[in-house]
Amino acid sequence: MDPTDKPPFSLDASVRGDTATIRLTGEVDLFTGSELSAVLDDLVSRGDVHTVVVDMREVTFLDSTGLRILLAAHQAEGYDLAVVQGSRAVVKAFEVTGLDRVLRFVEP
């Protein structure tokens, strides 16, 4: 696949009360993971966010970079991380790595 043919990546973050929601679209990988990591850091540094929900329903691909970012967010102090699972490929990535038994998954 030509890199110019990659599905677009987008990230939309919103805060309501003490809960932040990050909606991801496209591929979460080495090239896009830094954006997710930066947004997580920004949300947590606010001090008023206690729960972060990462909505992965529109994610088409998740590599080890994205998995590492989610695991680090899960292990971070000061907030609770929840994940809304997406496609079968994303679910399989969680299952193969065992993160399906570590992370907290929620319904949308």
TrEMBL record:
SUPFAM superfamilies linked: SpoIIaa-like (SSF52091)
GO-annotated molecular function: anti-sigma factor antagonist activity
UniProt domain STAS: residue ranges: 9-108
InterPro entries: Anti-sigma_ant, STAS_dom, STAS_dom_sf
Pfam families, A to Z: STAS
Signal peptide (from-to): none
Family: Belongs to the anti-sigma-factor antagonist family.
Protein name: Anti-sigma factor antagonist
